[in-house]
Specification:
Blueprint: E1 2-5, H1 11-18, H2 28-36, E2 40-47, E3 50-59, E4 65-73, H3 82-96, E5 101-107, H4 111-119, E6 123-128, E7 138-144
Parallel strand pairs: 4-5
Antiparallel strand pairs: 1-2, 2-3, 3-4, 5-7, 6-7
Amino acid sequence: MQVRRAGPADLPALLALEQNFPGDRMSARSMRRLLAADSAAIWVARSGGLTLGSLVLLTRRNSAVARIYSVVVDPAARGQGIAGRLVNAAERHARLGKKALMSLEVRADNAPARALYRRLGYAETAVLRAYYEDGADGLRLRRPLSG
């Protein structure tokens, strides 16, 4: 398995992964903008010529906080540690950019993702009522990047 920074040639595979979301999907236009932005990094996990997962990381120049905006793993590849490897790559990138804290939002009803983030050291810091497009609640999670 290879985890690497995505480029424009990865756009079709990234959009195919987005189809795994029931809602709140990123458009091709949004994905192209993120691929070109200095304030974003997209990571892909690939194996056997297939893109099995992706992660979108957002940063701001004058902020010590990096934000995981999206993590998607192909349903057929879940349970293989792909999301954890993507998060680790994003954390390394954020540390290199002198970020002190990683933040993300996750659906309150997404027990597998919540368990993953808990294992990786993320703590729930806020409940976000009706945060998602379908009215589902979200949770804000954070993790210090020191050490």
